[in-house]
Structures are given as C-alpha cells and as structure tokens.
Amino acid sequence: MLGDEIGNGPYGRVYKGLDLENGDFVAIKQVSLENIAQEDLDAIMNLNHKNIVKYLGSLQTETHLYIILEYVENGSLANIIKPENFGPFPESLVAVYIAQVLEGLVYLHEQGVIHRDIKCANILTTKEARPTIGIRAPGSRHGNRKASNHRVIRDQGLVKLTDFGVAMKLTEADANTHSVVGTPYWMAPEVIEMSGVCTASDIWSVGCIVIELLTGAPPYYDLQPMPALFKIVQDENPTIPDSLSPDITDFLLQCFKKDAKLRPDAKTLLSHPWIQNSRRVV
Questions:
Q1: Of the residues 117, 163, 235, 247, which is catalytic?
Q2: Which segments of the chain are extended strands (E)?
Q3: CB 55 within 8 A of CB 67
Q4: CATH class, range 74-280
C-alpha cells in the first residue's frame, strides 16, 4: 500500500509504504523505466551489506518501476545537518559516518557497482547502533578514576547508502560515458566532462559530503548549478576550509585529485590517518 511521499529528486520519487502481509513499513522508490536498465536492477537486487539499504522487491507498470526497500526511520544526514535541526557536525563525528560510507562503497565497488549520486540526502541514519572497538586515550577519565590506555567497546550510529536509481554496473560504464548523471554539486570533473564514469567518481563525491557535513553545504553551493559545474572542472580542487585539521585536509585533497586514476579507492581511504585516529580515540 502506497503512502505519503517522503522524498523526491531528478530521477524519481520515494514513498512510504505498508506491507499488507506483515505490517512492516517500507520505502518505495518510483523510477521511470527510461532511467534504469534491467542489468542495473539485477545488481541492486543482489546487494547485501550493513551500510546499504536492503532491497526487498519490485513492481513494474508500463511506465515506471517501483523499487521496494527497507524503511530507514531516522531520515537522511542532509536533514539532520539543517540549521533548524542539529547543524553541521564536528570532524570526529564526520569521521564516524564517512568510515561507514567508505565501507559501503568498498562493498559496492567490489560488486562492480558505481553509485553515481553520493550525497548526504542519500545517506540514511538508523536507530540501530553498531559496536566498535576504540582505544581510550591516556589521561582520559571514566567517572572519578583515571583511565589507562586500553581498548573499549562503544556504540556508533549506523548509516546506510540509498537511492540506487542511477547506479550502474561497471561493465556498462564505457557505454554511458556520454551521459551526465548525478547531482551537480557532488559531481566529479570526469562526469561533467563525460570522459568516463568510474568508481573514483564516487570517491570525489565522498570529499563533497565531508565538506557538506562540516559546513552544511557541498562545495560551490553558493553558485547556480551551471557555474558550479564550470568551477569543478576549472579549479585545481574545491576550496577547503582553513580551520580543518591537517589529517582531514589531506583526506580531502586525496578525494579531490583531478585525475581520477590518482584518487585512492575506498578501501585505501579507510586506512587514512583521519579515519584511523577517529577509531582509536574515544
């Protein structure tokens, strides 16, 4: 049963739905048949990872495909960082979420899938928590006792990548290099120039969401889409705030390498000092 619209974008609308067999709420993505190939749907159907929204099924009419997904109740990171909610995040919390985005991308890319629309609006937060092991820093305190340097277990909020309406198989990438797909402010230069979509295009977008989480908006958001696209291609890299730590600045410079072949992959970025340090210190 189709309910209220809970999201929309250039490639489709998302509705809240109700499974009449078990009473579970679901999310239903409505996509024009012109915007998704059967091979891309097949790839989505087989995805199974803690940081990927789970595919539950699909229905098709003459004009549209309805993709049924798990309903993630807490909404997107884009909504959470709005000024009227919690506003931008500190570096430490951004690292927690970016690590999970990277873990999801490692899995996606290993399955031969390029997301092509990584942005905070497509990263959903759940009520679940995942246990992680960190190292309590020397000199930190727990209650009235001084803590030594030791491992502790803590819970972190779980996030999941969604909106695979424009995802594509790597085998189709060469055939689709002349299509500009994604959302302007998060697009990699090679996507705009139509010189070849690749997994590294998702990595550029990761850099954009780091800026988005820290400041409330992606790079060039003060410009209209067309001038922003021009700046993405022409500038050496997007402007990085001076107030950021050296580690996160280096992480961003890695993501924003102009030559896609020089950008590290998601697995390599998981070993970056900024991500690793966030896991060590509680």
A1: 117
A2: 2-9, 12-18, 25-32, 55-60, 64-70, 113-114, 123-135, 141-142, 145-146, 151-161, 168-169
A3: yes
A4: mainly alpha
Taking CA atoms, 177 is separated from 193, 194, 199, 259, in Å, by 9, 5, 13, 16
Active site residue 117: yes
For the record, the structure tokens of 195 come out as 């010189």
Contact 239, 198 (CB under 8 A): no
Alpha carbon separation from 141 to 108, 136, 137 (Å, rounded): 39, 9, 9
* pLDDT confidence tier of residue 62, bands split at 50, 70 and 90: confident
Distance in angstroms (rounded) separating the CA atoms of residues 155 and 282: 11
In the predicted structure, residue 153 carries a pLDDT above the cut 70: no
Angle in degrees, 0-180, between the axes of helices 246-255 and 199-215, rounded to the nearest 10: 140
Sign of CA dihedral 172, 271, 251, 223: positive
User: Quick check: 172 and 162 in contact, CB under 8 A?
Assistant: no
Domain parsing of the chain, residue ranges: 74-280
Confidence class for position 227, pLDDT limits 50, 70, 90: very high
91-137 per-position pLDDT tens digit = 999 999 999 999 999 999 998 889 888 999 999 998 765 544 444 44
